[in-house]
Amino acid sequence: MSVLVNKDSKIIVQGFTGSEGTFHAGQMIEYGTNVVGGVTPGKGGQTHLDKPVFNTVDEAVKEAKADTSIIFVPPAFAADAIMEAAEAGIKVIICITEGIPVKDMITVKNYIENKDVRLIGPNCPGVITPGEAKVGIMPGFVFKKGNVGIVSKSGTLTYEAADQVVKQNLGITTAIGIGGDPIIGTTTKEAVEMLINDDETDCIVMIGEIGGQLEADAAKWYKESGSKKPIVGFIAGETAPAGRTMGHAGAIVGGSEDTAQAKKKILKESGIHVVDSPAEIGKKVAEVLG
């Protein structure tokens, strides 16, 4: 089993004919992902990468039976693209776009709140279920199928963790890059919960960073859940000075609980196996799976 995406997912690409959309859609198709078409307003009826182009998401849902969308739309229009996909009945929306204004994301969050839709991102690397579907910008060759789930705020550290897990002769069920913006669709806790409830996932790697409460919320939920499924945790940003945004827009220490040290303490107290360096992730996973 997997979460979010698999070989049966019918995927469309919003911003299909742009340079980013073209490049990454090509890579996704090459990987074997079931891309059923794309959306570029005004270019409906054309074909691109041997797939149909639609003017609207609604058309793509009706004609290609799309249920999953990946968004490569510039920041100014990305919020509208997310809401259009939700309105059309897409079930999983993965938004890669970086730099969407926070006020736009507040609107999106309110809009999708009561809809049957799961938003991943924005400003994320996407989601991959190895050997089945790569819906994102991650290097597919790094990921091999297995029994370890990954939840990460960082794109690069997602690939790093996967590489280390694979080098321990293990593999990945699904890796979810949740994004590093202040307002995202799916929280660390929600992503961890999905993997806890997945029968094929025996261990979870949770990669967080300074700023916000997401990792603390996930850790507290994990402790309360009583789950025996092990989690290996890493928090990036140990040396970040307080008050300065580091890399991601959401990675800013606002209070005493936002620091890497405070988060690591909460994780440890919740029964999570915390590593101090990303270089230790693979070994720790192998150790806890014993």
TrEMBL record:
InterPro entries: Cit_synth/succinyl-CoA_lig_AS, Citrt_syn/SCS-alpha_CS, CoA-bd, CoA_lig_alpha, NAD(P)-bd_dom_sf, SUCC_ACL_C, Succinyl-CoA_synth-like. GO terms for molecular function: nucleotide binding; succinate-CoA ligase (ADP-forming) activity; succinate-CoA ligase (GDP-forming) activity. Pfam families: CoA_binding (PF02629), Ligase_CoA (PF00549). One of its GO terms (biological process) is tricarboxylic acid cycle. Its EC number is 6.2.1.5. Keywords: Ligase, Nucleotide-binding, Tricarboxylic acid cycle. Succinyl-CoA synthetase functions in the citric acid cycle (TCA), coupling the hydrolysis of succinyl-CoA to the synthesis of either ATP or GTP and thus represents the only step of substrate-level phosphorylation in the TCA. The alpha subunit of the enzyme binds the substrates coenzyme A and phosphate, while succinate binding and nucleotide specificity is provided by the beta subunit. Belongs to the succinate/malate CoA ligase alpha subunit family. This is Succinate--CoA ligase [ADP-forming] subunit alpha. It comes from Croceibacter atlanticus (strain ATCC BAA-628 / JCM 21780 / CIP 108009 / IAM 15332 / KCTC 12090 / HTCC2559). The lineage of its organism: Bacteria, Pseudomonadati, Bacteroidota, Flavobacteriia, Flavobacteriales.
